[in-house]
Amino acid sequence: MSANARNANNPGKKKGGGFLARQANKGNAKTDKRPAGPPSTEEELLKQAHVSPDDVLRLAKVTKNYLCPVDANVYNIDFTCFKLRDMDTATVLFEVAKPENLPCGDDEDSNDADEEADPNAGRFVRYQFTPQFLKLNTVGATVEFTVGDKAINKFRMIEKHYFRDRLLKCFDFEFGFCIPNSKNTVEHIYEFPHLDATEIQEMIASPYETRSDSFYFVDDQLVMHNKADYAYDGGVSNL
């Protein structure tokens, strides 16, 4: 998979998009790069005080646990909007946004019971798409995020997608520097890897066995870890 990025600014908080736009124009996205050395194991990384980008790039399979606690996000990075679109047809495939009048943290009281039951509930997302999704060539993933009172240096995302324990693709993008109290919007452009007919049928017949780990780093230290799983049987009759 190859990838590049496109950036646009949103009004509201201080705009931090200028640097992000320059980074995108440099074409600094990297894909499918694994550093030299033996593969990392989840068990080893859970024992470490800090997890680095090279550590997760060497992971050979999806993790069962989260590699950092929720409170590692000391920069108050908050993802407020996410949209997927087919670049060939401009069709919006999926879109979700946090209400503008609900700042980060204001929903804590209403979700106390859920958070006590599962403190990681907000770190996991389940998606269901139609089989046609697997035949798309290029998809744009737009993400909007805000940051808190601290400046962010070397903000980086590494996202790894697996079917069962086989790596499908790895996306590595450097956001760079984000100013304090800023709102940023970035679109990642994915060119999907080719899947043969057998692979597509296996993925359709195996809902939620396609999984991803999304790792977010500041100054080469893991501060956020989100997970997702995917089904591609939407609209398919079980009869």
Automatic annotation (TrEMBL):
Source taxon at top rank: Eukaryota
Any GO molecular function: lipid binding
A single GO BP: lipoprotein transport
Positions of region (Disordered): 1-45
UniProt keywords, alphabetically: Lipid-binding, Protein transport, Transport
Pfam families reported for this sequence: GMP_PDE_delta
Composition bias type Low complexity, residue spans: 1-11
Official protein name in the record: GMP phosphodiesterase delta subunit domain-containing protein
